[in-house]
Amino acid sequence: MWEYAPAPESRDIANLKPNYRMLVDGKFVEGSGEPLKTINPGTEEVLAEVSTASQSDVDTAVKAARRAYDRVWSKMPGSERAKYIYRIARQIQERGRELAVLESLDNGKPIKESRDVDVPTAAAHFFYHAGWADKLSYAGYGPDPKPLGVAGQVIPWNFPLLMAAWKIAPALACGNTVVLKPAETTPLTALVLADIIQQCDLPPGVVNIIPGAGDVGAALVEHGDVNKVAFTGSTEVGKIIQRQLAGTNKKLTLELGGKAANIVFDDAPLDQAVEGIVNGIFFNQGHVCCAGSRLLVQESVADELLEKLHARVSTLRVGDPLDKNTDVGAINSREQLAKIKELTESGEAEGAQRWTSSCPLPDKGFYFAPTVFSNVSQAMRIAREEIFGPVLSVLTFRTPDEAVAKANNTPYGLSAGVWTEKGSRILWMAQRMRAGVVWSNTFNRFDPAAPFGGYQESGFGREGGRTGLEAYLDV
Amino acid sequence: MAAPTTLPSALADAARDESSLRRFLHGLPGVDQVGVEQRAAGLGTRSIKKASKLHAIDLAISMVDLTTLEGADTAGKVRSLAAKAKRPDPDRPDVPKVAAVCVYPDMVRTAADELTGTGINIASVATAFPSGRSTMDIKLADTRFAVEQGATEVDMVIDRGAFLSGRYGQVFEEIVKVKEACGDAHLKVILETGELVTYDNVRRASWLALLAGGDFIKTSTGKVQPAATLPVTHVMLQAVRDWQTQTGELRGVKPAGGIRSTKDAIKYLVAVHEVAGPEWLDPNLFRFGASTLLNDLLMQRRTQLDGHYSGPDYVTVD
Asked: Fewest beta carbons within 10 Å, which of A112, A165, A376, B2?
């Protein structure tokens, strides 16, 4: 047997500090909230203490953002704003390894993903939007579209740095100022991004980053001087925010949960479909709102596909997120692990057939072995509820119409995958999928030029591309 | 047109006649170019260090088909290559022997005189290598000559012209006949993937060669660019894996041409390990067709053991 020796990335690269503070009005300051301890989900050790915002800190941050908006940022020519945004993009690249290692430490995702996906895509978002800053007149929203003002942004823990980039880059490019709240369990890379922003000499108050729990987020979105709210996270919280904002004139975009169908037809390139299925559900431990968590496979190839899938999933290496050979890292928190366990138990109780990879798991930390449920029916919880973990539910279909009906039979509608070698069928399916993103013969591919967003309970508004600018412009 | 071994009925039917064969090959699932290249690039980022690297280097050395296929080949050159094959690093007797020495048919006797009894195989290219453009009789005579001279392995080329014009039956027939002419010698079937161009063709040609009884499927002659690539090898490894799933038989894969560094060789071994499976990490089931690769493996082996790099003058150039 050929065992791969451990190949860990050095954690020293992360430049981990014992304390992190929030960025308000261009300065790193102590928040007056209760400090939180952020842990490494791969080992359960405490990484650092992070100061959090109180209600009054939220107010200070929003006021700073308002000042920066009124006095500097809204008046600055787009070509000047672009220079700052380009500078941030280059700094992210410059400090790419530091950010990648820190992201893996704080979030639990494997280093190969933070290194090859999160950090480069975050930099790409800043580069892309920097390009728009002086070209907004040509974006299709009239001759001189105006910014909205102060954007209050709340982001999740699954892609801490990347989501910060998705939120901050378009806001700045369009001329808005920002108050951003990173997730409670993963504040560190957003605070290194804050350091980058400070080093890039952005005018004080243009970007404010205030860590904290849900109450800080609630105070931020409720604040009377916020003009725009952007939230990525659970459908449950998204609904609360929408209720809070009803009757105000704040512009809102929500990017919420999903239960995406990955549909494999009998003429699909099966081996690559297997890769796409694996990437669709086991990428980032399945902590992906657009994860392909429901596999819909045509009955005539179901057995063959499932056999190949089991063999492939068995080769996934679960373990130390910092090991360069790890494919599936740690579950982000104890709570999330408990939720995944509860839902998988319901799958067994409801009669689905469970298959779990026999890969070894580390003793410490939060880990869950890749799991595939077959004989799943639409009525089961594992087919309806978002698990947000490395758990795939396999259903079958007989005809394209049935595939469409089953795929759309969900309150969500964020993404879908279609696997077939027939071009006409790809287009036919894409027209019928009630999903914001339809991937064909691939899955989980992200590009700043491609708009991303959902239908129904997956939210509304688009992020990325020309379409995504609308959310930050007064149009 | 009968399949040479006892096969499961679905596969035996595939080889029944020309039109069944065509239906079977065209019925294989397609290969998505973007997907397979993404997977190959992804696996290429595996980081193999320390003991696992040393193990990989020794394994790779034992899988090398040390090759010289030049118009300028002489008996002297072949003898020195045979000496290298037996003791790749004369200062380090613990270095494993290579798997085989691969030469043109007229050099087989010279190689056999040096290698018989050493456990190192004598491989010969045959069937109008590298183009395969000759008559069946000549190709068979070429094969028989190589085997009579002492070849224990024959590397044949398929008729790419026939394959690309859809005459699959003819290609199948040729492989079956060459296999017969090989007798006990192992048959490696060179697909020349650089001329087949698409991954769909590579998959079809792989299955065709497996159905016809090839013991190994081999990427390239080394005379056409591109020669072996990682994604092509992925498709072929998947084919032998699928073959094993359906028949229980283990068949081998040999990428050849263009693999020059230890780093590359390790990427191939990772693919063997994770696409085909650990049982293929065996010189009987995976080979590297290479000449310059061996010295890089030896230098990296020394680096691993000595803790520093010693340079190309400390390994022999043969």
From this structure: B2
Measured between alpha carbons, how far is A71 from A73 in angstroms, rounded to an integer? 7
CA quadruple B36, B39, B45, B49: dihedral sign:
negative
Domain assignment of residue A31, yes or no? yes
A343 and A211, same structural domain? no
Please name the member of B30, B35, B50 whose beta carbon is closest to the beta carbon of A275: B35
List pLDDT tens digits, range A130-183.
999 999 999 999 999 999 999 999 999 999 999 999 999 999 999 999 999 999
- Could you tell me if residue A449 is inside a domain? no
* Shortest CA distance from B43: residue in chain A: A325
Contact A146/A137 with Cβ under 8 angstroms? Answer: no
Task: Indicate if A468 and A408 belong to the same structural domain.
Answer: no
Domain count, chain A: 2
Catalytic site residue B155? yes
Residue in B28, B31, B39 to test binding to A, most A beta-carbons within 10 Å = B39
Whether residue B35 and residue A1 make contact (CB cut-off 8 A), yes or no, is no
Nearest CB among A7, A271, A421 relative to B238 is that of A271
Query: In sequence order, which ranges of chain B are alpha helices (DSSP H)?
Result: 9-14, 18-27, 33-43, 50-62, 75-86, 108-115, 136-149, 160-164, 168-182, 193-196, 199-211, 230-247, 262-271, 293-306
Hey, are the CB atoms on B35 and A276 less than 8 Å from each other?
yes
Per residue in A308-362, pLDDT (tens digit) is: 999 999 999 999 999 999 999 999 999 999 999 999 999 999 999 999 999 999 9
Q: Does A271 touch chain B (CB under 8 A)?
A: yes
A385 close contact with B: CB closer than 8 A? no
CB within 8 Å: B47 and A315: no
- Superfamily of domain B9-305 in the CATH hierarchy: Aldolase class I (3.20.20.70)
Closest-CA residue to B35 (of A266, A438, A285, A271) = A271
Q: Tokens 């992360």 identify what position?
A: A14
Whether residues A350 and A231 fall in one domain: no
Q: Does A376 touch chain B (CB under 8 A)?
A: no
Asked if B36 is an interface residue toward chain A (Cβ–Cβ < 8 A), one would say yes
Cα three-residue angle A81-A82-A84, rounded to 5 degrees: 70
pTM of the predicted structure, to 2 decimals? 0.95
Considering the candidates B65, B142, B155, B200, report the single residue annotated as catalytic: B155
- Which residues, in sequence order, are CB contacts of A70 under 8 Å at separation 6+? none
